[in-house]
Fold Malic enzyme.
Amino acid sequence: MWRVAAAASTLLRRSRRFSTAIPGPCIVHKRGADILHDPWFNKDTGFPLTERDRLGLRGLLPPRIISFEQQYERFMDSYHSLEKNTRGQPEGVVSLAKWRILNRLHDRNETLYYRVLIDNIKEFAPIIYTPTVGLVCQNYSGLFRRPRGMYFSAKDRGEMMSMVYNWPAKQVDMIVVTDGSRILGLGDLGVQGIGIPIGKLDMYVAAAGINPQRILPIMLDVGTNNQKLLEDRLYLGHREPRLEGEEYLSLVDEFMEAIHERWPKAIVQFEDFQMKWAFETLDRYRGKYCMFNDDVQGTAGVALAGLLGTVRAQGRPLTDFAKEKIVVVGAGSAGLGVLKMALQAVSRIAGPKAEPHFFLLDKDGLITQERKNVDSAAVPFAKPSNEVLELGLQEGACLTEVVKKVKPDVLLGLSGVGGIFNEEVLKAMKESSSIKPAIFAMSNPTNNAECSAVDAFKHAGENIVFGSGSPFENVDLGNGKIGHVNQANNMYLFPGIGLGALLCGARIITDGMLQAASECLASYMTDEEIQQGILYPSIDSIRDITAEVGAAIVRTAIAEEVAEGHGDVSSRELAHMSKEETLEYVRKNMWYPVYNPLVHEK
Ligand SMILES: NC(=O)c1ccc[n+]([C@@H]2O[C@H](COP(=O)([O-])OP(=O)(O)OC[C@H]3O[C@@H](n4cnc5c(N)ncnc54)[C@H](O)[C@@H]3O)[C@@H](O)[C@H]2O)c1
Ligand SMILES: O=C(O)C[C@H](O)C(=O)O
Ligand SMILES: [Mg+2]
C-alpha cells in the first residue's frame, strides 16, 4: 500500500537550474534607481544591456554584465569564505553571521536569495528557520535594519481596514501571523517574534513555491509580559503588558476582517500563539476563514506520520497503531494537537470503541482524572485513576517513573524543556516493550530539545528510531552503522497545506484535508527507508513532498466540497483531474526563481 517515493527531485532541480528556456516578461511600474532599490525586481549586475536601456539603468551599474549563474557562484563563495573565516568562533556568533549575509542578500535581490535558498535548502534551512531563527528573534531589536512584513497593534484599532492598503503588493496569497507569545520553546518574545512568520514564509517560497511577492509576515503587537523586554530601551514593540480577554480577541477579529477585506482569498497560518489563544482563535476562525494553526494542526500531522512510520519500522501491521503505548510530554497546543489527531487515527484504524494507550504529562507530571483544573482539550487524555494504579503509578507521577512502569513504544516530547529526556529516562526506554522504540524530541530550538540525538542513541540503545524538531547530525554508531536522525518538524506539512488550499481556493481547511496531508507524508516513505529508521523525506526533497501534500489537500477539498477554484481553474475542472493531473497542476503552479525580462508600464 505504500507508494514508492519519487527520488529524482535533486536531479530535476539540478537540470532546471539555469535552464536556457526563455522566461516570460514581468511588468514593472518603476524605472532607474527605484528598480535597483527594489529587491523584487533588482538583478544587480545581471541586467542585460537592452534592459538597462529600456529601464533607464544605463550608467547606474558597473559596465560588465554578470550572469545569474556567476552571481550565484559569487554569493556561495562569499558564504563559504565566511564559514571559513568564522571557524572556531562560538556557534551563535557564526549562525548570526550566516543569517546576516543571507538577510542582506534578501534585502537586495530576492530572486537570487530564493534561488540559493531553494538549491541549498539543507544547508540554509537551519539559518533562516529553526534553530537560528530563534536566536534571531531573541536579538531582533538589535539586528533590525529594514522592515519585513506588517505590524498591527492596539494603537491601530479602527485603522486596520485602511492600513492593509499600505502593503505594496496588490495580491497576497499566504499570510503567517503571530502575537509573539510562545516563540518556539523560548517563551514570550513580543514583537521580536516577527522572525518566525518571516522564516515560515521563506519556507513557503522554498518548499511550496509560493511567489514571494505574494507572501505577508504579520506581527500582532498586543504587548508583552516579558519583563526583560519591557525594561529594554531598545525593544521595538509596545512596552505594555499583553492584552487579555475581549480586548485581545476584538483586536484579532479586526485584523482578520481587515486582511480578508483586501485579500478575500488569502490563507492565514497562525503561528506560535500561547496555548489559550492558539485554541481559541482556531475555534473562532476555522469555520469562517481559510486558516489553520500550524503548531496545533501542522505538528499533529507530522507527528502522526512519524508515529505511523514507527509502527512500520517496528515491523507491525498498521492496525497495531491502536496498541502502541505512547507517552507524550507536554500538554500544550502542540502535544494536545498531536494526541487529538492520533486519537482520530486510532478510531479510524481500530474502530470508535478502541481504547488508545496514551499517557500525557505536563509540568506537574502524569495527568490523571484526579487532576484539578485540567484544560478542556486535555480532559480526553487524563488517565482513569484505576488504570494508573494498576501500573503502580499515581496522579502527577514523574517522567522517569512513568517510562519505567509504562515501558512505552514511543516517547514524544513537546514540552519546550531542554534535556528533560535525561540519562535515566533514556536508559529506562531500553526496557520498552518494543524492539524498536521511538524517541521524538520535538521541541525547538536545539537547546530546548528534550534530548540530543547522540544521547538518545547512547543511552536508549542503537535500535531506536529518533526524531527531533531541530536538525541534528546523524549519529555514527561505529562498525559502519549510522543512527538516523529524522527532523520531525511541521515544515514537512505546512507549506503543502497552504499551497493546496491556495490552488483549489479552499473556503476552509477541514480535518479531512489535514488527515489526507498527514497520510500523504506517511505513505511517501518506502519500506526500505522505514526499515533504516528513516520516517521523513530528506529536506532536499521538500519541494517534491510539498507538491504531493498540496495535491492531497486539493483532492480532499474537492471531495469535501470546500474548494471554489483558483484563478481561471474552476472547482469543476479540478474535480475532473486525475491524481496525476492534480499533482502536475500543483507542480506547474510552484514559483521558481529566474530573472524575468522586465517591461516598464506607467
Ligand atoms: N517539531 C515541531 O514541528 C514543533 C511544532 C510545534 C511546537 N514545537 C515545540 O514544542 C514545544 C511546546 O510547544 P507548545 O505550543 O505545545 O507550548 P505550550 O507552552 O503550549 O506547552 C508546553 C507544555 O509543556 C509542559 N511542560 C513544561 N515543563 C514541563 C516539564 N518539566 N515536564 C513536562 N511537561 C512540561 C507545560 O505544562 C505545557 O503543557 C516548543 O518548544 C515548540 O518549539 C515543535
Ligand atoms: O518553528 C518550528 O521549527 C516548528 C514549530 O512551529 C515550533 O513552534 O517549534
Ligand atoms: Mg511554531
About this structure: The pocket of nicotinamide-adenine-dinucleotide (ligand 1) is lined by residues 182, 184-185, 275, 295, 299, 302, 329-335, 361-363, 414-417, 420, 442-444, 448, 469, 488-490 (CB under 6 Å).
